[in-house]
Amino acid sequence: MISYVILGITFLYAVIQISIYASRQRKPLTREDIDERLLAALNGGDPGRE
Per the UniProt record, which residue ranges are transmembrane (predicted)? Predict the structure, then answer.
């Protein structure tokens, strides 16, 4: 029963996020953008630091 609640919340979250993207007409992040953000987060938030 709890798993159905979690599944429902996840589905609603996904629908809300998709509608926000559609309303802003914003393109989703590319793989390169995601990689840059993840790498920056792992490096302490400084994108120029290697």
Answer: 6-23
In this predicted model, what pLDDT tens digit does every residue of 1-50 receive, in sequence order? 899 999 999 999 999 998 888 787 767 778 898 888 888 888 886 655 44
Buried b (16+ CB within 10 A) or exposed e, 6-39: eeeeeeeeeeeeeeeeeeeeeeeeeeeeeeeeee
- One-character DSSP codes across the chain: -HHHHHHHHHHHHHHHHHHHHHHHTPPPPPHHHHHHHHHHHHTTS-TT--
